[in-house]
Design goal:
This protein has 308 residues and is mainly alpha-helical. The protein contains 15 helices and 5 strands. Helix 3 crosses helix 5 and helix 9 runs antiparallel to helix 11.
Length: 308
Amino acid sequence: MTSELILASVPPESREGEPLALTPAQARLRKMVLDTVPSPHSKRNYGKALDDLFQFCASRPLSRSLLMEWRVAMEALSPSTINVRLSAVRKLVGEARRNNMIGQEEAASLTDIPNISQKGTRLGNWLTREQAKELLAVPDRSTLKGKRDYVILALLVGCALRRNELAVATIQQREGRWVLADLEGKGRRIRTVAIPIWVKQGINAWMTAAGIEEGRLLRSISKSGKINRDTLSDWAVWSVVEQSSKQIGIEHFGAHDLRRTCAKLCRKNGGDLEQIKFLLGHSSIQTTERYLGSEQDIEIAVNDNLGL
């Protein structure tokens, strides 16, 4: 039944610039999957994934071996992109199973395709720059909640905040730039964190839309879309990070991993270790070194370029 319904004969090829032509069966399954996905960002990604699958499979029956072949054919893409596409296929198979289009045993075989291992997990729960950009693109910034969620992610990955710091954050101008002032971290250490321009732009859009002029930056939003006076809970921050990371194909990723991502990307782009220590609010350089997993590089040593 799978080959007949999911991968019916392919229609004539679409002309260049036109949407991919789908069979009625393919279009039906595609719509079923996209109707279950609330985020416009995920709809786009899942739609691209299914279109690519239909085009790759042509008229061949859908099978586990064919899906493994498709997975290998995507090796030029990032691991997170491949994993999102595999998630879309699992959704498709799940919808086909729930609508009695395929049997349970066949569905289990088709969904048993392993994800690609990612740097986000393999290297100690942090994202590459490309993955961070993908994550920031997840919130729908045309909505009030999307504007707020973008600011949550931007402050975590751009300013290395802890969850509890995020909930009480306020912004001020100091020495000619916007900062998150007097954050109280572990050991009651106080620090001030500069806000990058791209993060401030997101903050401006959120504050304007939410009508926030002073006080705590982030607020909870009711199901009806109203701004509450309540502070943002740890659970709300956790939920935004978890749901957004899942949409780019990364499981078991938390807010603290975005703090580590910020530190790692700062260091990778030449950031001074002591300045990263100040950014994180650590008590010592040694703590920051352990946090970053810094290792001595003998092959390309720092004292090779003294200019003497």
